[in-house]
C-alpha cells in the first residue's frame, strides 16, 4: 500500500482521514523524499539532454549558419550597460528625474482637483451674492417711481462691477494658494517616493526573504526531527523484534498447531475456491461483499483474528465496523483498551486505541505477505496476532507511548465478525 502511494504520489482523502497526525507526518516525509529523488533524476536527465543538444548544435554550426557575438577592442563580448556608456546619464540621475517627474505629475493632478473645487466654491459664492443683491434692489428700489429706475440700474451695475472685481481678486488669491500647495506637495511626494524606493531596495526584499527563509528552515527542521525520531523508533523496534524473534519466520509456530475436525473443515472450505471462480483481488475494496471474500480467501488461511495456538477468535477482533462504532465501544473503557476491525479503506485492518484524551486509529497494511502499521511501525509481522502481541510490550509510537493493555470485546449477539466466518 505504501509503495503504491509513493508510486502514484496520491492518497485517497478517505484513507488520509483514517491516519493520525504522526502517520500523516511520516507519510508526508516519505512522499517528499520520493519527490526529491524524482526531481534529481529529472535534473540529471535534463542535464544530459542539454549537453547532447549543445554537442549536436556545435556540430550543425560547423556546417551551416551560426551567430557571432560582437566583440570589443579587448576581444571580449561587447556589452552595453545603460548609464555607463559615454553620453549616457548616470543611473542615479535617471532615477532622480523619474521620481521628480512622477512627483510633479501627482502634485499637478492634485492641484487641478483642488482648483476645480475652489473655482466651484468661488463661482457659487458670488453667484449667490449677486442674486441676493439683485433681489434686494428689485424689492427696495424698483418699487419707487419710474424716474428712479435709472438710478437703480446704475447702482446695480456698480454693485455688479464691485462683485466681479472681488471675484477676480478671490480667484487670483485662490490660484496663488493652489500653486503654493502644489509646489509643497510636489516636494513632499518626491521625498516620500525617494524614501520608499530606498526602503524597498534595502529592507523590504531582504526582510521578506529572511522571513520566508526562516519559515522554510523551521518547517524543514520540524520534518527532519520527526523523520529522525521515526528512524530511531524503527531501529529500536527492529532490534527489539529481532531479539524476541517475532518479526521473521513466525509463521513456523503455527505449522504444528492442530485444528479440530469441524474448524479445519471450515477453514479448508473457505480457502478452497473452485477452478472456475478464481479470486483476483481488486486494487482496493469497493464493497462489503468483496471485503468478506478477501478475508475468507486470504486472511482465514493465515489465521487472522484467531488467538495464538487455539481455534478461538481473539477477544480484540471485530468485523467490518465503522470508526464511529469503534469509538462507541471504547467510550467508557480505560486508557490502553484497543480493538482491531476490518478496514473498508484498504486491504487490511484498523486498530482503534483508547487514550486518556480521546481515541487514536492506526491502519494495518495486510496487502502483502506480512502485517505492519501504515507509516508508523516499519516492522513486518508474520501474523496479525504477532503484531498485537509485539505492541503489548513495545509502544506503537515513541511520542504517544501507546501500549495495547486491554482488549475490547463484543457487545452484540451474534458478534459483528459473524459474516466473515459464515
UniProtKB/TrEMBL annotation:
Any single GO CC term annotated in Swiss-Prot or TrEMBL for this entry: cytoplasm
Organism: Calidris pygmaea (Spoon-billed sandpiper)
Alphabetical keyword list: Coiled coil, SH2 domain
Pfam families: SH2
UniProt protein name: SH2 domain containing 4B
Coiled coil stretches, renumbered: 144-184
Region of interest: Disordered: 193-235, 401-422
Biased composition annotated in UniProt, kind: Basic and acidic residues: 211-235
PANTHER family xref list: SH2 DOMAIN-CONTAINING PROTEIN 4B, T CELL-SPECIFIC ADAPTER PROTEIN TSAD
Record-annotated SH2 domain positions: 316-408
Amino acid at each position: 500500500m505504501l509503495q503504491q502511494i509513493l508510486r502514484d504520489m496520491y492518497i485517497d482523502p478517505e484513507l488520509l482521514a483514517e491516519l493520525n497526525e504522526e502517520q500523516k507526518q511520516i507519510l508526508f516525509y516519505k512522499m517528499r523524499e520520493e519527490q526529491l529523488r524524482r526531481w534529481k533524476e529529472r535534473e540529471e536527465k535534463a542535464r544530459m539532454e542539454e549537453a547532447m543538444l549543445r554537442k549536436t548544435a556545435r556540430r550543425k554550426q560547423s556546417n551551416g549558419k551560426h551567430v557571432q557575438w560582437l566583440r570589443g577592442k579587448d576581444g571580449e563580448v561587447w556589452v552595453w550597460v545603460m548609464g555607463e556608456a559615454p553620453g549616457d546619464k548616470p543611473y542615479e540621475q535617471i532615477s532622480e528625474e523619474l521620481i521628480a517627474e512622477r512627483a510633479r505629475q501627482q502634485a499637478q493632478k492634485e492641484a487641478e482637483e483642488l482648483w476645480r473645487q475652489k473655482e466651484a466654491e468661488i463661482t457659487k459664492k458670488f453667484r449667490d451674492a449677486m442674486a441676493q443683491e439683485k433681489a434686494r434692489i428689485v424689492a427696495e428700489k424698483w418699487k419707487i417711481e419710474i424716474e428712479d429706475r435709472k438710478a437703480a440700474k446704475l447702482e446695480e451695475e456698480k454693485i455688479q462691477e464691485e462683485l466681479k472685481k472681488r471675484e477676480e481678486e478671490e480667484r487670483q488669491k485662490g490660484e496663488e494658494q493652489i500653486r503654493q500647495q502644489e509646489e509643497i506637495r510636489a516636494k513632499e511626494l518626491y521625498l516620500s517616493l525617494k524614501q520608499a524606493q530606498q526602503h524597498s531596495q534595502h529592507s523590504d526584499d531582504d526582510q521578506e526573504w529572511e522571513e520566508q527563509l526562516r519559515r522554510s528552515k523551521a518547517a524543514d527542521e520540524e520534518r527532519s526531527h520527526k523523520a529522525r525520531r521515526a528512524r530511531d523508533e524503527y531501529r529500536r523496534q527492529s532490534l527489539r523484534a529481532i531479539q524476541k524473534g517475532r518479526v521473521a519466520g513466525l509463521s513456523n509456530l503455527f505449522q504444528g498447531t492442530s485444528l479440530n475436525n469441524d474448524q479445519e473443515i471450515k477453514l479448508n472450505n473457505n480457502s478452497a475456491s473452485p477452478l472456475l471462480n478464481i479470486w483476483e483481488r481488486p486494487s482496493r475494496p469497493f464493497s462489503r461483499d468483496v471485503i468478506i471474500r478477501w478475508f475468507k480467501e486470504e486472511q482465514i488461511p493465515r489465521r487472522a483474528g484467531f488467538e495464538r495456538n487455539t481455534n478461538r477468535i481473539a477477544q480484540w477482533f471485530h468485523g467490518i465496523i465503522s470508526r464511529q462504532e469503534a469509538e462507541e465501544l471504547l467510550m467508557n473503557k480505560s486508557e490502553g483498551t484497543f480493538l482491531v476491525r476490518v478496514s473498508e479503506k484498504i486491504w487490511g485492518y484498523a486498530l482503534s486505541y483508547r487514550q486518556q484524551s480521546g481515541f487514536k486509529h492506526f491502519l494495518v497494511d495486510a496487502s502483502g505477505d506480512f502485517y505492519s502499521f501504515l507509516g508508523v511501525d516499519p516492522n513486518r509481522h508474520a501474523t496479525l496476532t504477532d503484531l498485537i502481541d509485539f505492541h503489548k510490550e513495545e509502544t506503537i509510537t515513541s511520542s504517544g507511548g501507546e501500549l495495547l493493555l486491554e482488549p475490547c470485546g463484543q457487545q452484540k449477539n451474534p458478534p459483528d465478525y459473524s459474516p466473515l466466518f459464515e
